[in-house]
Amino acid sequence: MSRLTARFWVDAYLTRLRLFDIPGFVVSHGDDTGGAVLVKLNTLDGQAVVFHRSFDLQSDARVWAELARGAEAEVDAVVTRQRGFDPDLWVVEVEDRAGRHLLDHDGLA
Length: 109
Fold this sequence. Notes:
The chain is of the alpha+beta class. The chain has helices at 6-19, 72-85, and strands at 24-28, 37-42, 47-56, 61-71, 90-95.
């Protein structure tokens, strides 16, 4: 199976968020072709969750897994450390009080 470029996936994800009236924006622009993507969900109450794409061996599928959860400042520190390890990393921030991120929708894994 061929993989989408990071830039294509990010653009498609932001479009999907807009269709649901969920604000989302690029915080860190990574490598257009092969950069990994983190998605930070900011629930606008001082809390946040960051997700990264992972591979589930049981289902043999790509999934979005939780990397960190907690106070927004702590989650931001995790994201900053990850960016230090990987300069090609994309970071997309989603802001939704209801906690919607759409990563569980078809076509986004």
